[in-house]
Recover the amino acids of this structure.
């Protein structure tokens, strides 16, 4: 066989092998994605690794932000109920200090104040959906929800129930309610001090409710930011790893056309070689 003919046949075989491999590769991309191994695109593969870690971090932060939102909503409801209870306590004290609050009429007021005191005490030891203290006795529970970002879904118990500024000095919520009950039953402390204490408690818990609203908004903003970040990461991963099916099909069709032409050329060269041998 002439050397030139042998070289042509070798080239045809090599070309057909490459075309077949290319077609198989494009078909695999349609099935499994654009990148199946690091050698496909080393830089893109490395970026995909970084994006995978980012997606994992975002997923963990979103789980934490969900828990923070749950605690925040629960805390907001509890604080609203506490404000309502203190508003009622104030009404009862005003009633007890008025003309209609004399004699036997005071005891029902004292009994209702005791119920409000118990309600507030129970509120402070509320638990979240996971059975954990909503308002912990120690520091507020902060959860990681971003890079170097920790947020608390609810405040600590002391910030709500202690350090309330009254005309007699700092007092606890329970002490203020105990004094209110004592005033109704015994007249001690004086009406002004009892009413001032409940007013101070109402202002204090209301301020806590406002702060909780601000914290809730911050949590929701971070939840939105994480949602957008997750979308961006997903889109970039898709851009790097997913196959453009239409383009892949076009390349497969072009490859099949070229492969068919190469095979026809190979057959023609092979026939010529056979005729040379028969002559």
């Amino acid at each position: 066989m002439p050397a030139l003919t042998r070289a042509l046949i070798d080239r045809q075989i090599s070309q057909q092998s490459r075309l077949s491999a290319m077609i198989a590769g494009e078909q695999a991309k349609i099935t499994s994605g654009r990148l199946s191994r690091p050698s496909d695109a080393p830089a893109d593969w490395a970026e995909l690794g970084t994006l995978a870690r980012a997606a994992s971090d975002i997923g963990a932060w979103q789980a934490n932000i969900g828990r923070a939102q749950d605690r925040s909503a629960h805390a907001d409801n509890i604080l609203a109920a506490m404000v309502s209870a203190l508003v009622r306590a104030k009404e009862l004290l005003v009633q007890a200090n008025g003309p209609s609050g004399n004699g036997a009429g005071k005891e029902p007021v004292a009994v209702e104040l005791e119920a409000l005191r118990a309600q507030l005490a129970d509120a402070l030891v509320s638990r979240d959906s996971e059975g954990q203290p909503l308002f912990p006795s120690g520091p507020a529970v902060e959860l990681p929800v971003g890079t170097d970002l920790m947020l608390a879904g609810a405040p600590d118990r002391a910030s709500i129930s202690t350090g309330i500024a009254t005309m007699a000095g700092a007092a606890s919520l329970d002490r203020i309610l105990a004094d209110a009950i004592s005033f109704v039953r015994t007249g001690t402390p004086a009406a002004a001090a009892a009413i001032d204490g409940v007013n101070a408690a109402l202002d204090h818990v209301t301020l806590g409710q406002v702060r909780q609203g601000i914290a809730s908004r911050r949590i929701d903003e971070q939840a939105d930011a994480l949602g957008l970040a997750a979308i961006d990461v997903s889109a970039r991963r898709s851009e790097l790893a997913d196959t453009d099916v239409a383009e892949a099909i076009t390349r497969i069709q072009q490859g099949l056309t070229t492969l068919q032409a190469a095979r026809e050329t190979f057959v023609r060269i092979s026939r010529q070689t056979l005729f040379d041998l028969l002559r």
